[in-house]
Structure formats: C-alpha cells, structure tokens
Amino acid sequence: MQTAHTVDVLRKQISDLRRDGSTIGLVPTMGALHEGHLTLIRRAREVCDHVAVSIFVNPTQFGPNEDLDAYPRQMEADAAMLEAEGCAVLWAPDVEAMYPQGFASTISVTGVSEDLCGASRPGHFDGVATVVCKLFHQVQPDMAFFGEKDFQQLAVIRAMARDLDLTQPHVHSIIGVPTVREADGLAMSSRNRYLSAADRTAAATLPRAMKAAIARFEGGEMAAPALADFESELLSAGFASVDYAVLADSASLTPLSALGDESARLIVAARIGGTRLIDNMAVTPPVRG
Ligand code: AMP
C-alpha cells in the first residue's frame, strides 16, 4: 500500500495505478476504522481493480461545540488494517494540505441537507459536501462508496454529484452500502467508543425500539404515536434526549405522517452520556394487490 500526504503525490500514485486501464474505487473515511468501514472497502475491492481510502478528520463538518478535538485518531493502526485489506492507496492529508492558506470555497446543497442532522448540526453538510467534492477531484475514482449508516449524508452526496455533474467523467457511480451492526443491533460507529459500559448496554435499546416502531408503521398506524412511544422508551432506557425521530420518504427525506406506497425510512439521532448516536432503517411499504 502506498500512502500520500500531498495532492501531487496522490495524483502520481493514482495515475500510475490507472496506466493499464485499471479502475479505482474511493472510500472516504475519518479513520478509527471498524467493520463498517472494512465492509465498504471489501465491497469496493469486489467491483474495482484498486481501492483508495482517505482518512481525514474534516474540521469543517464539526460545529464549534462538537467533538473535533476528541475524535479518535489512530493512523498507524488504521494503516495496518488497510494494508491487510489490500488497499492500494491511503490518502492521508493534513488540514493544511486539504485547506491551504486562503481557502475560500464552500459547496452547499439545499433541500435534502436542511432537516434532520442539517437542523441539529448547522453547517455540517456544507463541510461534508465540500470535502467530498474535493476528494472526488483529487482521486477521480470510477466509483465511490458510502455507508447507509449516514443516510442523509449519502442523499446529500448524491444530490451534489448530480447537480454539479460530478458523476461523469470522474465518478461513474456512488454506491450505498448497508449498515453494519454489532451483535446486539447497535450500528457500528467510531463514536461508540465514547460510551461507558452502562451506556453501551443501554444503547442497544435504540435499534430495538426502532424495530418496534417500524412494525407499527408497517401495521398501518400513524407515525406520531409510534414515534412518541419510541422517544419515551429511549428516555426510560437512559438516553438524555432524542434530537429527532422521523418517518421519512427515502428519496426526499421529507416527513411522512404514515406509511404510504413510497419507500420510507425511520431516521433518528439521540444522545446518551454526551454521545450523539444516529441510525436509520428501511420501512417496507405494504404490498397492495
Ligand atoms: P466515518 O469515518 O464515520 O466518516 O465513515 C466513513 C464511511 O463509513 C461513511 O460512508 C459512513 O457512512 C460509513 N460507515 C460508518 N459506519 C458504518 C457502518 N456501521 N456500516 C456501514 N458503513 C458505515
């Protein structure tokens, strides 16, 4: 595996890999790698000749009171995992390489970025869209892989790629990969390591309560009472607050008052012991016949 810390070195490595017509898959990450990330990388290896993984804790997607400084960083351990997975390139810029002195541009996607995490984390998706756009231009991958774990992020990136014509010629497709979970159902996240043992146990209530709410939506109930019970269950289990819990249209992410014929998703963010957890699950519309 080759490692690049500057755009010039990265471009040289990528063009060498491409010389024989090979395809490149990009997996953007913030490091502190776990099985969720590794699943994205394995998917990329299945469909691309070479995989480039970026590790960059992007300061512009963190708010002033968020966990930028505390965010786990373990570059050596991550590099060893990437090597073992057969990655071709580790793109590990520092902040100065990504945002040189005088950097002054921002990409802002309206619509899908505005509610849910966009409302509770102002500016977050501008930071995400800007850095992912830069990563696309830096690596020029054939495909880019993102987790459905960050469902709204995936929608924002798809919208940006469509609106700014980023999907041709550089990124032929953006692939969403289903969420990888722990044995008790909790979605894997680099932030799970912030949880105390007691909070980690209580956190498993989140996916369990989501499934219970989804069974009610699929049974034809209105969303509001099921979401109210969902919130109460989390608070009784020891969660400090629920930022949002929404039954949403999977494409537009607009809230639904009940499940209809459209593909829908339960999307939630909740806080436990100072850690903000996000999760989402598919809600299956009834088969009408
Ligand atoms: P992060 O390092 O948290 O920015 O995540 C990097 C990529 O890995 C994003 O596309 C995430 O959606 C994806 N990812 C994170 N956790 C999981 C998970 N549990 N399952 C699948 N993908 C994930």
Secondary structure layout plus pairing:
Blueprint: E1 2-4, H1 7-18, E2 24-29, H2 35-47, E3 50-55, H3 75-84, E4 89-91, H4 95-98, H5 117-120, H6 124-139, E5 143-147, H7 151-163, E6 173-177, H8 197-203, H9 205-218, H10 223-237, E7 241-249, E8 264-272, E9 275-283
Helix pairs in contact: 6-7, 9-10
Adenosine monophosphate (AMP) binds near residues 29, 30, 36 and 190.
Description:
The structure is a single chain. This protein has 289 residues and is of the alpha/beta class. Helices cover 37% and strands 19% of the residues. It has helices spanning 7-18, 35-47, 75-84, 95-98, 117-120, 124-139, 151-163, 197-203, 205-218, 223-237; strands spanning 2-4, 24-29, 50-55, 89-91, 143-147, 173-177, 241-249, 264-272, 275-283. The strands form two sheets. Strands 1-4-3-2-5-6 form a six-stranded parallel beta sheet, sandwiched between helices. The chain has a three-stranded antiparallel beta sheet with strand order 7-8-9, covered by helices on one side. Helix 3 links the parallel strand 3 and strand 4. The relative contact order is 0.13. The model has no long low-confidence stretch (mean pLDDT 97). It binds adenosine monophosphate. Residues 29-30, 36-37, 39-40, 146-147, 149-150, 177, 179-180, 187-190 line the site of adenosine monophosphate.
